[in-house]
Design brief:
By secondary structure, the chain is an alpha+beta fold. The chain has 16 helices and 31 strands. The protein is about 25% helix and about 20% strand. The strands form seven sheets. Strands 2-1-7-8-9-11-10-5-6 form a nine-stranded mixed sheet, sandwiched between helices. Strands 12, 13, 14, 15, 16, 22, 23, 24 and 27 form a nine-stranded mixed sheet that branches. It has a five-stranded mixed sheet with strand order 3-4-18-21-17. A hairpin with a 5-residue loop joins strand 3 and strand 4. The longest helix is centred in the C-terminal third of the chain and has 23 residues. It is globular, with a radius of gyration of 26 Å. Phosphoenolpyruvate binds next to helix 8 and helix 9.
Length: about 625
C-alpha cells in the first residue's frame, strides 16, 4: 500500500504495487557518468530519500485501523505513497497551506479519472458522475439513545436509520475501499477557532475527492499533521459503489449515513463532493450548539474598520458572490460559527457556483480558478481548454472549489469580531420583495426561521411558475436540532452585540420570472455597500403593505424607483395578487413553527409570528 504525503495521502491497500522494469539507460562515455543504469534508478535519484519515522508509522497504523473491517477487525497493510518533500518542510515556519503536496493528487486524477483535465487557467476540471448535486432524500442519521434531542419527523432533514443498517453500509464501503490498490486519506481540521477545532479524516477512492476536501477543509501545517493523532470524525467515501437496495431503509442506490455516536459518515452511490462538505457541516450543527456555539449557513466578510457582516441564504442567493468583495476582507463563503469570542469560519476553502461566471462581474472568483482549484462538471474547448461558463450541458450546478487564500483579500486565520450586520438573502423569483429592507429584531427572527427563497423551474421549456422554497435557518438540509434552537441563539447573540438585520432580495424586479428580470449584481453590490457603510442606518424609510417591511427611499448608486417593487411592475393588479400569494405561502409555512411549543423561543413566539405578513383575503 502506498500513501502519499501529508493530509492528502494515497494509500495502496495491496501491500506492494507492481514494478515494471524500464529499459536500460544508454551509455555515452564522453559525458560525466550518471550513477544509474535504468530510468527507475535515475528517477529515484531525483527524489529525496524517505525517512520513515515512528510518527509516520503511527499515522499509518491509525489509518489502517480506520480501514479495518468490523467482522475481521484487522486493517490492511499500508505503505506511504510518494512522500514528496515533507521532511524538508518540518520545522520551517510553514503556514496552513502547502499546495505542492496536491500535485501528485492532481496528476493521479488526470491519469486515472475519466473526464479530468487541466483547463487553460490551470484548474483541474473533473466530472462528479451521475449525481451533480446533493441527495437530501438519501441522507440518513442513526437514531439511538444519544440522539433524543435531534430534530426528527416532519420537516426534519434527518431521515432515521438504525445502527445495524449503518454497520452494513459501513462494511460495504470499507470492503470496497480495501479492494482498491490505492485510497486517499486526508487528515484536516474544521473551525478556525482553535478552542473548538475538530479533527476530520476523509478516506476516499478518488483523487478528485481528496483534492476537493484538501481545498475545502483547513489544511494542517506539517507540525500539526505530525501530531494529528486520532480523528474526531471520519468519512468513508465509497461514492462510486452503490448501496444495496435490499438493505433495510434503502430507497435508492445512494445513501449518505451519519452516525454521531461512532463519529462516522459513510457515502455510497454518489460522487458529488458537496456531500462531504455539507455532511460535515451537519455534524458541526450538532456538536457546536452543545457548546453554546451557533453554527451558521452563511458567508462572512469584514470591512477594513473591523465591521463584520453575515450573509445568510439558500443555494444560489449570493452568499459566495456577495461575501467575496474587492473592498472587504473575506472570512468565509458558506459555513461559520458564532461563539462568545466572535465569528470563525468552519472551512478552509470556498465552493462557488460557476454558471455564467464572468471576469468582469466576479473578478476575485475568476482569479481563484487556477492550478489547485477543482472545477466540477464544466464544459471546455477540447483544444484550447478554455472553459465555457455559460454551458449547462452537464449541469447548471457547475462549481469551483478553491482554498480560501486563492482570494486575494482573505483573512487568515479566518476569524473576526461579533457581526454588526446580519443580511438575509432571498432570491425572490416572484419579484415582490423589495431589493432591501431593514428588519426589526422580531422580523429578523421571522425571516430567519422562514428561510425563504424562490427557485425558477427548468429554464429550457419556456416560462414556468417560480417555486417558493422555505428552509428553516436558511439551511434546513443541514440542521440537526429543531430550528427554533438555532433561532433562539441567533436572537440572543444579535441582541447582545447590537447587530442589525436586513432582508435583501437578489432576485426579480419589474415582474415575476418570465416578465421581469433579475436585479443586476451591480445594484445589489451598491445596496450591500450602503449597509456596510452605515448609510442605510440613518436614512428615511417607508413601510410596505402586507409584509410590513421598512424600505429606504434612497440608496447611493441605485435608481430610487427600484426600491419599491410596485413601481417597477407595469401590471399593478398582478403585483398585488402575487404579493398576497407569496404572503399566504409564508403564513402557511410559518404555522408549523408558531404551533411548536418546546422550541426555546416560546416567550418570543407571538411577537415573532406577528412580524410576518399581515393581511386579510
Ligand atoms: N443581484 C445578484 N446578487 C447576487 N448574485 C447574483 C445576482 N445576479 C446574479 N447573481 C448570480 O447568482 C449566483 C449566486 O450564487 P452564489 O453566490 O454561489 O450563492 P450561494 O453561495 O448563496 O449558494 C451567482 O452565480 C451570481 O453570479
Ligand atoms: C454546496 C452547497 O452550498 P451553496 O449552494 O449554498 O453554495 C449545497 O447546498 O450543496
Ligand atoms: Ca449552501
Ligand atoms: Mn455558496
Amino acid at each position: 500500500m502506498e500513501a502519499k504525503d501529508g493530509q492528502a495521502s494515497w494509500l495502496g491497500t495491496n501491500g506492494y504495487g507492481s514494478r515494471r522494469e524500464e529499459d536500460g539507460v544508454c551509455h555515452d562515455d564522453s559525458a560525466t557518468p550518471v550513477r544509474a543504469n535504468t530510468v527507475d534508478e535515475l528517477h529515484s535519484l531525483q527524489r529525496k530519500p524517505q525517512v520513515v519515522e515512528d510518527r509516520h508509522r503511527l499515522q499509518l497504523q491509525s489509518i489502517s485501523a480506520s480501514l479495518a473491517s468490523m467482522t475481521c477487525g484487522i486493517g490492511p497493510k499500508l505503505i506511504k505513497g510518494d512522500p514528496a518533500r515533507k521532511k524538508e518542510m518540518v520545522g520551517k515556519a510553514v503556514t496552513h497551506h502547502q499546495h505542492h503536496i496536491t500535485v501528485p493528487t492532481i496528476t493521479h486524477a488526470i491519469k486515472y479519472e475519466k473526464g479530468s483535465f487541466i483547463t487553460s487557467s490551470g484548474a483541474l476540471a473533473t466530472l462528479s458522475g451521475a449525481k451533480t448535486g446533493r441527495s437530501p432524500r438519501d441522507k440518513r442519521v442513526v437514531k439511538d439513545e444519544t440522539t433524543d434531542d435531534l430534530w426528527w419527523g416532519k420537516g426534519s432533514p434527518n431521515i432515521e436509520m438504525d445502527e445495524h443498517t449503518f454497520l452494513i453500509n459501513r462494511e460495504r464501503a470499507v470492503d470496497y475501499l480495501n479492494s482498491l490498490d490505492k485510497v486517499f486519506v486526508n487528515d484536516q481540521f474544521l473551525n478556525w477557532d482553535p478552542n473548538n477545532r475538530i479533527k476530520v479524516r476523509i478516506i476516499s477512492a478518488r483523487a478528485y475527492h481528496s483534492l476537493f476536501m484538501h481545498n475545502m477543509c483547513i489544511r494542517p501545517t506539517y507540525e500539526e499533521l505530525e501530531n494529528f493523532g486520532e480523528p474526531d470524525f471520519t468519512i468513508y467515501n465509497a461514492g462510486q459503489f452503490p448501496c444495496n437496495r435490499y438493505t433495510h431503509y434503502m430507497t435508492s442506490s445512494t445513501s449518505i449515513d451519519i452516525n454521531l455516536k461512532r463519529r462516522e459518515m459513510v457515502i455510497l452511490g454518489t460522487q458529488y463532493a458537496g456531500e462531504m462538505k455539507k455532511g460535515l457541516f451537519s455534524v458541526m450543527h450538532y456538536l457546536m450548539p452543545k457548546k453554546q456555539i451557533l453554527s451558521l449557513h452563511s458567508g462572512c466578510n469584514m470591512g477594513r474598520g473591523g465591521d463584520v457582516a453575515l450573509f445568510f441564504g439558500l443555494s444560489g442567493t449570493g452568499k459566495t458572490t456577495l461575501s467575496t468583495d474587492r473592498n472587504r476582507i473575506l472570512i468565509g463563503d458558506d459555513e461559520h460559527c458564532w461563539s462568545d469570542n466572535g465569528i470563525s469560519n468552519i472551512e478552509g476553502g470556498c465552493y462557488a457556483k460557476c454558471i455564467d461566471l464572468s471576469q468582469e462581474k466576479e473578478p476575485d472568483i475568476w482569479d481563484a480558478i487556477k492550478f489547485g482549484t477543482v472545477l466540477e462538471n464544466v464544459v471546455f474547448d477540447e483544444h484550447s481548454r478554455e472553459v465555457d461558463y455559460t454551458e449547462k450541458s452537464v449541469t447548471e450546478n457547475t462549481r469551483a472549489a478553491y482554498p480560501i487564500e486563492y482570494i486575494a483579500n482573505a483573512k487568515i486565520p479566518c476569524v473576526g469580531p461579533h457581526p454588526k450586520n446580519v443580511i438575509l438573502l432571498a432570491c425572490d423569483a416572484f419579484g415582490v420583495l423589495p431589493p432591501v429592507s431593514k428588519l426589526s429584531h422580531a422580523q429578523t427572527m421571522y425571516h430567519f426561521i422562514s428561510g425563504y427563497t424562490a427557485l425558477v423551474a427548468g429554464t429550457e421549456d419556456g416560462i414556468k411558475e417560480p417555486q417558493a422554497t422555505f428552509s428553516a435557518c436558511f439551511g434546513a438540509a443541514f440542521i440537526m436540532l429543531h430550528p427554533t434552537r438555532y433561532a433562539a441563539m441567533l436572537a440572543d447573540k444579535m441582541k447582545k452585540h447590537g447587530a442589525t438585520g436586513w432582508l435583501v432580495n437578489t432576485g426579480w424586479i419589474g415582474g415575476s420570472y418570465g416578465v421581469g428580470e433579475r436585479i443586476s449584481l451591480a445594484y445589489t453590490r451598491k445596496i450591500i455597500d450602503a449597509i456596510h457603510s452605515g448609510e442605510l442606518l440613518d436614512t428615511s424609510y417607508k413601510k410596505t403593505d402586507v409584509f410590513g417591511l421598512d424600505i429606504p427611499r434612497k440608496v447611493e448608486g441605485v435608481p430610487s424607483e427600484l426600491l419599491d417593487p410596485i413601481n417597477t411592475w407595469e401590471d399593478k393588479d398582478s403585483y398585488k395578487l402575487t404579493l398576497l400569494k407569496l404572503a399566504d405561502l409564508f403564513k402557511r409555512n410559518f404555522k408549523v413553527f408558531a404551533d411548536y411549543k418546546n422550541g426555546g423561543v416560546s416567550d418570543l413566539a407571538d411577537e415573532i409570528a406577528a412580524a410576518g405578513p399581515n393581511f386579510l383575503f
